[in-house]
Amino acid sequence: MKQSIFKKNMSLGLALCLVLFLPLIIAVVFALITDPNAVNVGTLRIVEVTSPGGKTIAFDDEAILDLYSSVTEGGKKVEADFRDFSKEKPYTISFKEENSDPIVYKLYVSTEAADCVCVSPDGNYYIVPKSVAEELIKRDEFASIDTARLHPELFISALGKDIAVQPDSYTWTYTALDGTMPTVKDSTKAKNPVIKFDSSDEGKIQLVFDKQPDSLELEIKNGDDVLFTGKYETLSGATTLTFDHDQKLSMKAVAEWYEIEGAEQFGKAEYNLDLLYDVAPESRIVNKTLPTGEFTFINIENFNDGEYVTVETELHIPEKLIPYDYKDIKLIPVPLTSDLEEKEYTIKLTTELGQSSTVKINVTEKEYDSQMLIIDESSDPGLNEAFTQSSLDEFYELVDTLTAKSANEQLYTGTTFAYPTGATKTVTGGAKYGMEREVLSKNSDGIKYTSFGQDMECVKDQSIKAANNGKVIFAEETVLLGNTVVVDHGYGILSYYGNLASISVKVGDSVVKSETILGKAGSTGFACVLSGASAKTSVLCHYAVSFNGQFIAPKSIYSGIRLS
């Protein structure tokens, strides 16, 4: 009798335990099969949806935020290998909450709502709740899963490339997944690239649709002049669209797919495109023979705006650059630095389209002085701190930074530059362009460098004026040159005025040749000259000129600039 009562009580206890712990068991199981990263719609501010093709749409509407947050809630966890996702391209959903990093999910969308899967930030796969998936696949941002919904794609085939272009407007009627035939419209102006073509395309471009239209009408214009109008198939490009120079054109294409009995899709689309008939660039160098320390330019005709050119040469020209604009040609500065050997140099230029041209220049040598500066205890102690390897490196880094800011236009006036001191005299024992200098000081066993400018003779507080018109792009102290002003003259031409006692201009100021006072001559920075056997500080202005980041002899720019 007692044993029976004991068993009865034990059974009752087990049942009570199950009742008490059942919610906890359910919670554990639910946590294992649902996503712990689920987004809190209450703190959600923006959702960004990015298609497999890279187009991103942002939403901040409360109802849409609620729909997308539901993607992360209530989904059933599944193993990643239940289907082959390697053949599918996912959408990306970025959830942005206040004061936190975005939470990013991948979404694999299917025409079947039950097959929509999301991947959480920690790499787990979840089946999106069916009711949520049904709402998603109706939305425009997932139109790509319903191919009938998409208007036909147009590809322009030119210069060996197929370029996808978008219509400026279209009206498209299609058979939807539910059997209805809705009509979609859009009149958003497309941002299509300029379509380039040349004689290799037989003077015309190929228009290829993934669903060929029943009618395709073209209008091609050169400014206001109509070059062609009519059916695409009647275009005879070999005689109509061939030019002996770069030519900008515009084209309007109107494609139509007819509404006929039984058609599952029909509509109309209009494309407006900019075309460029691209003639291979021709290059020539302005001066074919020059000594070191001088400069010249390469002129390029028929070079496309905004494109890079790759440069192969032993000369000090950047390997990749955008040529400067000058009238109807392009310019590439060619500085002939003092370290070049005497020989003929080849410069090969290659455009982004692979078109190449070559120019040559003969460089003759000049002889430059050498100098050893010993900074001992009798020298100004500030010279030790002003000239170090780090101050030298810092200055060259500044040159690169400022060169990148040079205007793509001519800021200077005339063809010659003036002396900033009003006279040509340099300091006795001072730096001259191309001079090989070795500096011995307590901070160095000997630093060798090539002087990039020249020390102009000055008296205390003498006004230093702009060598030509331009804009101030630097006006502050450097360790090496003390108070320094740098003026941009355009086309990569910069002038430097160092060792100033004071600065009278600021960044952004426009300056006028031989009129604008940049500052007063002084002895800040490494204003060092050789006097007898030792070095000493002197009042001066260190003046230098660079072309695209390379220094040339300042006096070479006084004799005149030939751009073409």
Architecture overview:
It is elongated and about 100 Å long. The chain is mostly beta strands and 564 residues long. A hairpin with a 5-residue loop joins β1 (44-50) and β2 (56-59). Mean pLDDT is 86; it is low at 1-7 and 24-33. The chain contains seven helices and 40 strands. The strands form eight sheets. Strands 30, 31, 32, 33, 34, 35, 36, 39 and 40 form a nine-stranded antiparallel β-sheet that branches. Strands 2-1-4-5-6-7-3 form a seven-stranded antiparallel β-sheet, covered by helices on one side. The longest helix has 32 residues, at 2-33.
Please count the helical segments: 7
Count of DSSP E strands? 40
Average pLDDT works out at 86
Largest beta-sheet characterization = 9 strands, antiparallel
- Quick one: overall form? elongated
Task: Give the key terms.
disordered N terminus, 564 residues, seven-stranded antiparallel sheet, 14% helix, mainly beta
